[in-house]
Amino acid sequence: GAGVSQSPSNKVTEKGKDVELRCDPISGHTALYWYRQSLGQGLEFLIYFQGNSAPDKSGLPSDRFSAERTGGSVSTLTIQRTQQEDSAVYLCASSPSPRAYEQYFGPGTRLTVT
Amino acid sequence: RKEVEQDPGPFNVPEGATVAFNCTYSNSASQSFFWYRQDCRKEPKLLMSVYSSGNEDGRFTAQLNRASQYISLLIRDSKLSDSATYLCVVNRGGGYQKVTFGTGTKLQVIP
Alpha-carbon distance A17 to A111, whole Å? Predict the structure, then answer.
């Protein structure tokens, strides 16, 4: 079946511009995660959605970052006024509740801020 | 102290060798443990869960040592295709659905 998809696969933007990253989770998966991975670094948790519950936003690094999940499916991560340190691969993962630890990752969006 | 710590490596081993990685975790209440594999410039994929009694999947053996708060991954008869970064993942449990990823241990299997 279809896996997690993300778009765009690559995004180059100028410092100060806003960007939107999209994630389509696996159908039926209720949990959705966003992570960030900088070159040679581990995965940094950003935000977690579970069903209709309030999202866990504890990993968002600043108020320039926001995310929403519409209809319990597609999610968008928005970064406003991008900075060079935002350059990274942004990974989305979904998982079937309650085994939320089995996460299925999308291929990621490589964001480069120039 | 980081919640999950791994030796970044790289571990360079010849084909056919046995190699083992450890991962330490700081929260003694952690309940679930996993190993993920991440190939270069690819997304992580679940390799195996780690059960309290230890578990094996082909050439891969995972073990948990709660007393010393670490998990291990043993790979026997290494293949070139095993070259990847291995991520240790810990869930603190108690209904808490977030997991914490280690920064990974890089393995390079050499012909």
Answer: 12
Cβ–Cβ < 8 Å for B30, B89: no
The two beta strands, B55-57 and B44-50, are unpaired
Handedness of CA A78, A102, B44, B64 (dihedral sign): positive
Cα separation values, A47 from A7, A72, B32, Å: 18, 14, 20
User: In whole angstroms, how large is the CA radius of gyration of chain A?
Assistant: 13
pLDDT tens digits along B22-41: 999 999 888 889 999 999 98
What does the block give as tokens for A105?
């990752």
Name the A residues in 31-60 with CB < 8 Å from any B CB.
31, 35, 41-43, 45, 48, 50, 56
Which of A101, A104, A108 is facing B99, going by the closest CB pair? Answer: A101
Q: What is the distance of C-alpha B58 from the center of its chain?
A: 15
Under a CB-based contact definition with an 8 Å cutoff, are residues B102 and B80 in contact?
Answer: no
pLDDT at residue A52 in the model: 81
Helix (H, G, I), strand (E, B) or coil at B23: strand
